[in-house]
Structure formats: C-alpha cells, structure tokens
C-alpha cells in the first residue's frame, strides 16, 4: 500500500480546469426544510474553497440519512441553500443537481465553469450507492478527472461513492477535513500523550467494544457513565433495577473489569425514575431499586468525574457518549458537567477529543463551543471503527494510488 496523497501535495496549477468529484458527508440534521445543524458542512468548506479558488470545478456527492429510494424528505436541497449561504461570502457559485445520475446531471457537470460548485442530490436515492454497484460507480466517475474524499465520517462504508468510484481515478486525494481527522485520531489510537483519560457513556456498548479494546490498555483512567455504566455495575454485582443493560456483553464487561480494575471508575450515585417521561426522580447511592431506571449520574459522581478530568495533568482526554438521558433537562446535569470540565481541561492545555453524533449534540446543549476542544470528530460510527483499528474502505482506497 502506498501513501495517502493530500491536497497540498499538488501544485496550484494542477487543479486549474480540473473536474473534481469530492465525497463529502452532508448527513446533517434537517428540520422543516432547513439545515438545523451544519457542523459537517462547515468542516468541508476548507477543501471546497481551496479547490474552487484554484480554478477547479467542484462536484460534491453526499448521502443524507437512510432513505429507501427517492424520498424527498431526505433531499439535499436544503443543504445546497446552506452551502450557498456559507460560500456566498467567498463569491463562489453553488448549483444543485436534482439527481445524482442521468443525462441532465451529466449536462450540468459538462457546462460547469472554473471555480463553480455543483452539489448532487442524495446519492442514496439510488440503492446502487450502498451496493457499491459497478455501473453506478462508473456513472459517478464519468463526471470528473480527480477524486477527493473529505468524508471521514462515512469512510467506514464500502459504498460506490466512498470506495468503488475511487478505483476509476488515477488521482485520489484526502481532503483537509479527512487529513485532520487522520492526524488527531491516529495519534489518539497509537500514542495518546499520557496521562490519558477515557470518558465513556451513551448507550451501545456493542458499538464501542472495538475502540475500548484498543484504548483501555493505553488509558490511565476510564470514567464510565450513561447507560453503558449499568452493564458494568451489574457485572460487579450491583442491583441496577430496570436500567438499560446489554446482557450479551456482560462477559466482555466482566473481563474488562478484571483486567483494568485499577483504572475503571464507575458511578457512585444515580438519578433514577420509573420512566424517561417522569419528572419525579430520586437520587440513590450504589443500588438502584427494582422498579427504577438510571437516567443520569448523581452529584457525587459528577464531583468525582470532574475531579478526575481536572486532575488529568497535561495529557489526553477522549470523550464519547453522554452521561445520561441528556435530551431531557432533568437528566442533563451529568453530561453538562462533563462537557464543561472537558472545556476547562482544554483551556488548561490538555489535548481533548470528542467523538460521536450525540456527544457533539450534548456538547452544544452544554454551551461548550468546538473552539474549546482540541479536536471534535465529525464521525460517529466511523470514529469508533477507526479507533478500533478496523478496516476503513474509504481511507484504504486512497492508499492504493
Ligand atoms: P454517541 O452518538 O455520542 O456515540 P450514543 O449513541 O452511544 O452516543 O448514546 C447517546 C444516547 O444515549 C443519547 O440519546 C442519550 O439519551 C442516551 N443515554 C445515555 N445515558 C442514558 C441513560 N442512562 N438512559 C437512557 N438513555 C441514555
Ligand atoms: C454518520 O452519520 O455516521 C455517517 O454519515 C454515516 O451514516 P450511515 O451510518 O447511515 O452510513
Ligand atoms: Mg449515537
């Protein structure tokens, strides 16, 4: 396997007159036909702007959500409006192709001028996208001379636009955002500066096991909150009532507790209620009553976790997964406290990294800005897979130029 080529590995004049297919991940939140959260769009702007300024014709391909066929609730049109709004300040024209394939789209591509940006409609309107279909790959490849992947967050997918299409190009390049993700996440995966603290929460232990297997041995401390903590507490013999448990992963959790007993710190108290809709909660210490479910960490735990984050020293902290059912105000304290502690650690000089779609949302809800974190990954599943050392087809294909 060769080396990944980056945008700045090529001279400016290389890009002039070139048609460039850029796989971006504009899988963002859309509400009432408007983009309500544009982090991923902003993260792709450096690449789009750089190419456009150098006289390239930039063809953007993305998916949005998981539509079954052509379903306009998942149209990228609202994204094109947002993109236009952002790029208008750079005097860059944005056009929208109502289809990602077909003769009309090809015509639009062929009539593009240097510096123009064309966003294609949702690639997943065609089932061929997810099937890595050869003809579909060929159709997409016919638009351009050069392939750029700037969609780290979807690089764990072996789809037409992330994988198959790249094979048709002699020149495959990693965009700025992908390069930045690789830089920070590779360091985290291989050699995080110690002391290294892991803060893990959220729901699905299943999705996190690979990353935990890889990172636990490197970590000095592991703080576990959120729904994930109840499987750990159960494995230790505590009563967890009706809290979310992943029975299938009890053996793995038991082993992790044995191997890393000195590092793993579990909640000391909990905010519990009979259901997520209940406004009545109570705080319990180590044992959760039979008819109750844990929805947030309690104050003692908040204090303990904040103390550990504040006393990490100038190393690394990685946070994935909210500490509770933060979508509801009464259960958001644990998550908000961790977010603020992370920001304070950053200001003190700690390398802080945050990953996960819901964690990013939680960070925002907590009033912490992306500027108060060393690196906020655009990825959810992709980040965890990468940290686990799993295959990343969208990245691997860039290495085989
Ligand atoms: P991420 O997307 O950041 O990787 P996850 O998807 O693993 O995070 O988990 C996020 C979800 O976990 C949130 O919707 C949050 O409400 C939920 N959650 C966290 N703790 C609890 C809990 N104790 N009970 C119910 N849901 C929880
Ligand atoms: C994500 O949101 O994690 C990426 O856009 C990938 O989406 P997917 O899980 O639907 O493939
Ligand atoms: Mg999630």
TrEMBL record:
HAMAP family per UniProt: Phosphoglyc_kinase
Protein's name according to its UniProt entry: Phosphoglycerate kinase
Transmembrane region(s): none
Localisation: Cytoplasm
SUPFAM superfamilies referenced in this protein's UniProt entry, alphabetically: Phosphoglycerate kinase (SSF53748)
One annotated Gene Ontology cellular component of this protein: cytosol
Transport in keyword set: no
EC number: 2.7.2.3
Superkingdom field: Archaea
Residues that bind (2R)-3-phosphoglycerate: 40, 124, 157
GO BP annotations, alphabetical order: gluconeogenesis; glycolytic process
Record's keyword terms, sorted: ATP-binding, Cytoplasm, Glycolysis, Kinase, Nucleotide-binding, Transferase
Protein family according to the UniProt entry: Belongs to the phosphoglycerate kinase family.
Enzyme type, top EC level: transferase
